[in-house]
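Hello,

Our lab assistant flagged a job as stuck in the queue for most of the afternoon. It eventually completed. Since we weren't sure the result was trustworthy after the delay, we are filing this so someone can double-check. Below is the sequence as submitted and the structure that was eventually returned. Let us know if re-running is recommended.
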Amino acid sequence: MPEHVSILQLLGPVVLALAAVLWVTGLVRILRRTRPGAAPHRPAQALSGLPPQRQTAPDLEAVELSPAERDAFAGLVRRLNNGR
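-- returned structure --
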């Protein structure tokens, strides 16, 4: 070890080399993951404590309004629109 070189000056190239190796490793992993021919990721396993999720949407409901209800709703909409 040269006498005129401090320990920090000796560690500098080592730290830079380590940082370069980590950077290249990360870059290679990212590029492999985004490759068009890359194998798709495995689907996540379902949690056993949760009930199975429904695959379809619930049925839509429709209710016929009486003329009085329609008038009341129209009045409510007009009143709410006046505030804007």
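-- support follow-up --
The delay was a queue issue, not a problem with the job. The result is valid. The first helix runs from residue 7 to 33. Residues 46 and 52 are 9 Å apart (CA to CA).
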